[in-house]
Amino acid sequence: xxxxxxxxxxxxxxxxxxxxxxxxxxxxxxxxxxxxxxxxxxxxxxxxxxxxxxxxxxxxxxxxxxxxxxxxxxxxxxxxxxxxxxxxxxxxxxxxxxxxxxxxxxxxxxxxxxxxxxxxxxxxxxxxxxxxxxxxxxxxxxxxxxxxxxxxxxxxxxxxxxxxxxxxxxxxxxxxxxxxxxxxxxxxxxxxxxxxxxxxxxxxxxxxxxxxxxxxxxxxxxxxxxxxxxxxxxxxxxxxxxxxxxxxxxxxxxxxxxxxxxxxxxxxxxxxxxxxxxxxxxxxxxxxxxxxxxxxxxxxxxxxxxxxxxxxxxxxxxxxxxxxxxxxxxxxxxxxxxxxxxxxxxxxxxxxxxxxxxxxxxxxxxxxxxxxxxxxxxxxxxxxxxxxxxxxxxxxxxxxxxxxxxxxxxxxxxxxxxxxxxxxxxxxxxxxxxxxxxxxxxxxxxxxxxxxxxxxxxxxxxxxxxxxxxxxxxxxxxxxxxxxxxxxxxxxxxxxxxxxxxxxxxxxxxxxxxxxxxxxxxxxxxxxxxxxxxxxxxxxxxxxxxxxxxxxxxxxx
Length: 557
Known about the structure:
This protein is of the alpha/beta class and 557 residues long. 55% of the residues lie in helices and 17% in strands. It has a domain at 185-316. The protein is built from 17 helices and 15 strands. The strands form three sheets. Strands 2-1-4-5-6-7 form a six-stranded antiparallel beta sheet, with helices on one face. It has a six-stranded mixed beta sheet with strand order 8-12-13-3-14-15. Strands 9-10-11 form a three-stranded antiparallel beta sheet. Strand 6 and strand 7 (110-112) form a beta hairpin. It is elongated. It starts with a strand and ends with a helix.
């Protein structure tokens, strides 16, 4: 709900802070005092467009801020979270209009574009009258109200899921149909590429093994010569070999150990060295005898590596990646070969989903039409009580079988005839602001439990009515205030007497300056204001008594 409105240098308001309570709050005052200015200011902070003309004559900028309690508005808190605009406690909207034409908007202290102010504002306040914030004029809002009144959330959710499945299948079907046009060309290329890679038969790790064998064969002469030289040095040299020298040293030291036992460890080391030299010689002899110097094998390896790299270049890939590429192309080939079957399956599924959607949409349309008749009848009955005895109200629900949308295929239009003999017209074309406000009041009373907007404002809702009808309007506004916050600008005591909070707007002149003054009335001053509204210039004791009785009859103190 709206908890506070603060205004500085707007129109004829110099400075004002006004706290609001729950229930019905009325704004009264003499004509021209500035009652509707408050509504205009609230409209601006909720995202209406403005120019520098709204700034008070002696000021450079106008500032408006509105504070809302969103504790019982989970959808609003979720919206704030989604836009990273959450703040602890209340939600504060601020609008600044400068003399140079620049305007700034803020939500919880953070600058935002006008569109975000408007999006949030439409979730917080609905202004009925000759203003832009009239959600009931929007087809989407009319459809939402009808659905909330019909109370069929499960069917709506079912329709939305069917639509999402239908849409996803349609997109996949379009992709496959587009791909099918190039299917034959792609299929021929894939088959050629897969056949070529399969014929190559490259195995994981094969390239590394071939490279290793190629290096060995290409350097076989160097390897054999080096190995033989090492064997000669270790064991087979005609001169002293390492084995011979080690054996001689061991023989010499073994004889000396009889003289000095400290040489025994060294002898053991030489014995181990002699054994290692024997084993190294045997290993080198085996290597030399087993060496494969077949030049044909070298040629085979070179041809194999050349073929592998040729194929890799054709596919613009690394040779090591060819096995993975074969797997990828094979999978695509299978997919393309099966695409005709997949396309047929998708077309069948698409048709099935379309049929299911149309059947569900038809059920939804039937439920909407039944709900529309009930809602229209209740609204018309209240219109008759609100000073439009010959008025008619209807809700037209039409269908477009070829339309697919998350909310079904219906178009909903609220239609009204305010006077006898006049044809039904769309609600958006109702000319009289007062009639529109009363029709909106009738709709809001009927759908009070359904609508999610927490604050309703009715500007000049009593235009053109009086007497008993005015009292009925007041009663409906007060009953609406039991579940919603309602603000009403009124000239009628019968309406004002029903308020939970009464705010008086005064226009005061000091020298050459004129300013609007706001005050919240207590029991005594409220009686005086109602007496003024009832009696005009001269207020008598009888008038005051009548005003007091009206407050008491409405349930006031």
